[in-house]
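haha ok so turns out i had the wrong file open the whole time. this is the CORRECT one, sorry everyone. sequence first:
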Amino acid sequence: MKEVIEWLQSRIQGDLLPWADQQSAAHRFGLSYRQVEEMALKNGLLPARYQRNRNMISLQEQIRLFHSRAVVIGCGGLGGYIIEELARLGVGHIVAVDYDVFEEHNLNRQLLATPDFLGMNKVAAAARRVDRLNPSVDLIPVCEAFGSENGRQILAGADIAIDGLDSITVRLELAEACRAENVPLVYGSIAGWYGYVGSQFPGERTLEKIFSDDTGGRGLETELGNPSFTPAVIASLEVAEACKILLGRGTPARKRCLSVDLLDMEFVEIEC
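then structure:
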């Protein structure tokens, strides 16, 4: 719409489009915030919220993120931080998958958990959060338990899948579904002071190697618990991996795993 673009160009500060003017354009022309952001980006106008991205992410890369579809499986300790960071980064489509509701024991570490949200579905809380912090991002809540029966359907059309699970069995089912749908997977896990993170591309079987001697279940989290900081660290590493993969930048942690020990502050790379 030429009229919209001309109006946006009249409002820019340098080449930055302030949020107030994005809001005004949406109301003035009867558009969604997402439509306004897409028009701005395509015409070389950077929404001011992304100005601190620009020295490391080009305008064309910001457009790529805007059109990317990330599926986050699990919206708890890891997943809440992952969703938050993806939305702030500008990833335009986020599919949030979780069947669970918030309980009081989630309050110590889960970003989306608040006393007001106790009993609420985690994906509903994720949708509220994203709508408040970046309304140009389309968050699709899927209130289901991920598994082999629905995994491929949930992953259809995804550019990246990001693991926020606490079940080894379901994590392996996720890896299999990603292979079937040709979707790269960023995986991570946490327990107490410890965690790990890595990436698996279609055709690879890194997770099967990691868990070759495991009998399944929820892993060490039930034994060691989790503080507030471990999910934030591992989730941030996962989002960094996802960003690199979506943009085709850097060196993903393929066929290797980063083991994180926050108690002794040791980071060890393990070949897989």
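The chain has a mean pLDDT of 95.
again sry for the mixup
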